Amino acid sequence: MAVTVKDYAGSVKPTWCPGCGDYGILAAVKQGLVQAGLAPHQVLMVSGIGCGSKLPDYATVNGFMTLHGRPLPVATGAKLGNHSLKVVTVHGDGDSMGLGMGHFIHTARRNLDIVDLIQNNQIYGLTKGQYSPTSDRGFVTKTSPDGAIEQAASPVALALTAGGTFVARGFAGDVKGLAGLIAQALEHKGYALVEMLQPCVTFNRKNTYDWYRERVYNLQEDGHDPSDQVAAFAKALEWGDRIPLGVFYQTRRPTYEEQVAGLEQGPVATRELKPLTADEVERLRAELG
Amino acid sequence: MRTINNMTFKIAGAAGQGVESSGAGFSEALAQGGLHIFAVQDYMSRIRGGLNFFQVRVHEQPLYAHEDAVHILLPLNEEALEAYRDDVVKGGGIIYDEGLKVDPQAAASRGRRAMPVPLLDIAKEHGERVMANTAALGAAAGVVGYSYERLADVIRKNFRSKGDDVVAANLRVARGAYLYAEERYAADFEWKLKQVDGAPHRYVMSGNQALALGALAGGCRFISAYPMTPATSIIEWMAKHEHSFGVVTKHAEDEIAAINMAIGANFVGARAMTATSGGGFALMSEALGLAGMNEVPLVLVEAQRGGPSTGLPTRTEQSDLLFVLHASQGEFPRLVLAPGTIEECFEVGWRSFNLAEKYQTPVIVLSDELLAASLRTVEVDAVDLHKVVIDRGKLLTNQELDALEGEYKRHRFVEDGISPRAVPGHPNAVYATASDEHDEFGHICEDQENRVKMMQKRMTKLETARQDIEPPTRYGPEEAPTVLIGWGSTYGVLREVVDRLGGEARLVHFCDLWPFPADAAEALQGGRLVVVENNYTGQFKQLLQSETCIQVDQVISRYDGRPFSPEDVLASLKEVD
C-alpha cells in the first residue's frame, strides 16, 4: 500500500504560535517523506531543542528529541548503528549554528547518508527573543539592544566549505517547493542539507513572510548549475535584496558508512547478537599470546 | 645467599628511549618462563624526554601489586640513574652502559653494586646502536641467570615483522650482553630467576585490554570515543578488531559527540560504549542524563587520572567517585561498577552491557590509570570467553513486535519500572521520545501526575537493579582485627597487605558501587575499619558512612598521582599503632 501524508499524521496538537513557519515545515516534511516513498517505521527523525525541534512530537514517525545542539552526533551514532534506517535530523539555527556548529561541520565533511533539516528563523524563539548566530548584523533583540555586531553564519556556505554533497535552501512559506527539496535530499546518497527559511511571527518582526517573498528566487529557474561548485559558493554568499532558494550544489562522494569496514557484515543493530563462536574464541586466544 | 624468583626490575629513561617496549618485552619473556609478573608504568605527558620508568615485579606465586624495593635498575641515561638509584636495595645492582657519565662510587653507595656493561659497543659490534636496549635486557637476564632462550623467544616474536636479519642481529646483541654480564656479575649476585617448568600457559594483560575483550565478548560492536589518557587504549583495541569482528569504531570530534553517538547507536539497538577519563566525562555529563531520561542503555568507561582540570594526565587517582555518582542535572538511575583486577575488568566488560540493557539506563565503569595500564600475568581461565552471557532484558524480539497490538508505549508504567523496549524499525512500534519529561508514549508532557509517576518509574529501576548488585568481596581471615576497605584498583595492594600481616587484617573490596550494596554493613562487622583510597577527601569513606551509618576509624589516602605500594599501606597502618 502506498504511503500517504495521513500515515505521518500525529496525535498531538502543536504548541507553535498561530502563523509560525514550523507549520509549513511540518507539512513539507511529511510531503517530502511521502514523495520519497518512505513509511514512518523506516525513518528515524532526530531533533534537538527549540520550537522546531518538537516537530517529531507532532507527527507519527520514529523520533528522538535529544539535547540542544546534539542531534547530529546522536543521528551519526544511530546511522552507524543501523544504516538501513533513513535518518533525518531537524533542528533550529541556535541548535545547529550555536552549540552544534562543530558537529555540523564534522557531519557534513563525513558525508554520512543523512538528511539535515535546519529551521532558520534567525531568532531564539523558545527562550523568547534573543539574537541567533544567523541573525543579520544590526538585528535588535533583548541580548543585542544596540543591534547584533557579529557576521551572520550561513548554513549553506558552511556546508559547502565542509564538503556537504547536497546543499539546498527552501522557504517555509513555499510548502510545495520545500517538500520537493526535502524529497530530493532524501533521495540523495550522502550528507544532504536543506536550510529552511522560517518566519518567527512572535519574536522576529524583520524577517517576515512578506520580507522573504519580496526577495526569494529559485536557483533552478535562474539557470544555476548545481554541479558547479564555484557558482554554488557565489550563490551561497548572496543574501540581502535577493535570496536564492533551491539546490546550490550536488555531487556524489562515497558515504561514510560505505567506507566503514565494520559495517561490511551489515547493520550492527540487525545482526543477531550472540556469544562468540568457538572459532572467534580461538582467534582471540591466539592473539592474547 | 640466594633469593630465587622474587625480585623487581626497574627500567628507566627518557620518553622515546624505548622504556615501555623494553619493559613489556622483558615481562613477556618472564611470563613465558612460567613466572608471574606485575608491571607498573610511570611516564610523563610528553612524547620525548623527561623521565619514565617501567617496573616489573617477578615471583613464582601470583602477584597483585608492585613493590617499592628494586633489585635491578636499568637506567638508560644518567638522569634515570640519578633519580632512581636509591630505590635499589642493598646488594642490588645497577646495570648501565659504560659510556654513561656516571660516578661508579656514587652508584655503588649504600651497598649497591655498579654493573657497567659496554651495551652500546656490544650493540654496534653485533648489530646496530639502536639495539642497546636489547643488550640491556640481555645483561639483566645474564646477571640473574634467567633462561636466555625465553628472552630469545620474545625477540624472535617482537622483531619478526622487521625481517630475519633484524631478528638475528638482536639475538647476537642479547647473547653478547648476556654472556658479558653473567661472567662479571652473576656469581655473587643474590637475586636469581629460574624458569618454572611445567607451569600453565598464562596471559600478560592490562585492565583496559581485559575490559575491551570483555565488551567485545559481550556483544559490543560500536565504540565512539575521543582519545584521552588513560582510556585511549580501549578504542585502539576495538579498532584493531574492526575487520575481524565487525566492530564500528568512531573517533569522534569531541567527548560530547562521542557519548551522543554511543547513545544514538544504543537507541537503534546496537550494543555501544564510550570511554574517557575525568575531563572527557565532565563534557559528557549532560548526555549522561539524556540516556537516563530516555531510558537508553549506555556503557561508559571512566578511567580516572589525577585531577582537577588537566591534572596529572598520565598518573593515577580515584578522585572521580562522587562526580560519577552525581554528574548531570536532575535525578535518574545509574549503575557504577569499579573493577579492581584483570579478572573483574573482563567480567565487568560484558556484564555492564547486560545491566545497561536490562535496566535501560547508563552503566558507568570506573577504572583508573593504575588498573588501565598495569600488566599482570593471569591464568587463561581468568578471561573465560565461554562463560560470557548475553541478556538483553526486555528488548522486544521481532516475533513479539509482530504480535504487538495497539499503540506502542515506549515508557509504559510497569511495576519494576522497566518497560518493554522496541528499537526503531518495526511498523507496530513507531514512537518518538523526548528528553523533555514525557508521557508513556514519549510525547512531551508537563502534567504533574504524569511527572510524579514517570520519576517513580525511572527511579524504581534503581531499586530493581539491586538484585544484580554483587556484595563486596572478602579476602583474609574473618576474625582479623583490622578491616581494610577498598574499591577499584586498590584490590591488589590491599590483598598483599593482608597476606603480609598474616591474620592481622582482612580485606573488603567493593566492585559494585551503585546502587550501593545492601549487604555492605554486614561485611564490615567487627574490627577496626580502615578505608584506603587514592584521593584527598576520602570519597568512598563519605559514601560508605552516608549509606551505612558505619563510622570509619582511619582513612589512608594518597593523592600524588602514584599508586599505593604495600609498604605505604603498612607504614600508614603502623602510624596509628
Count of helical regions of chain A? 9
Rounded mean pLDDT score of chain A: 97
Work out the radius of gyration of chain A: 20 Å
SS element count, helices of chain B: 21
Percent of sequence in beta strands of chain B = 15-25%
Q: Kindly report the CATH topology of chain A.
A: Rossmann fold
Secondary-structure class of chain B: alpha/beta
Strand order of the largest sheet of chain A: 2-1-3-4-8-7-10-9
Description:
The complex is a heterodimer of chains A (289) and B (577). Chain A is α/β, with parallel strands linked by helices and 289 residues long. Chain A has a single domain (5-262), classed as Thiamin diphosphate (ThDP)-binding fold, Pyr/PP domains (Rossmann fold, 3-Layer(aba) Sandwich). Chain A has 9 helices and 10 strands. In chain A, the strands form 2 sheets. An 8-stranded mixed beta sheet of chain A has the order 2-1-3-4-8-7-10-9, with helices on both faces. In chain A, strands 5-6 form a two-stranded antiparallel ribbon. In chain A, strand 7, helix 6 and strand 8 (192-197) form a beta-alpha-beta unit. The mean pLDDT of chain A is 97. Chain B contains 21 helices and 23 strands. In chain B, the strands form 4 sheets. In chain B, strands 7-6-5-2-4-3-16-9 form an 8-stranded mixed beta sheet, with helices on both faces. In chain B, strands 11-10-12-13-15-14-21 form a 7-stranded mixed beta sheet, sandwiched between helices. The longest helix of chain B has 23 residues, at 164-186. The radius of gyration of chain B is 26 Å and the shape is globular. Strand 2 (62-65) of chain A pairs parallel with strand 17 of chain B, so a sheet runs across the interface.
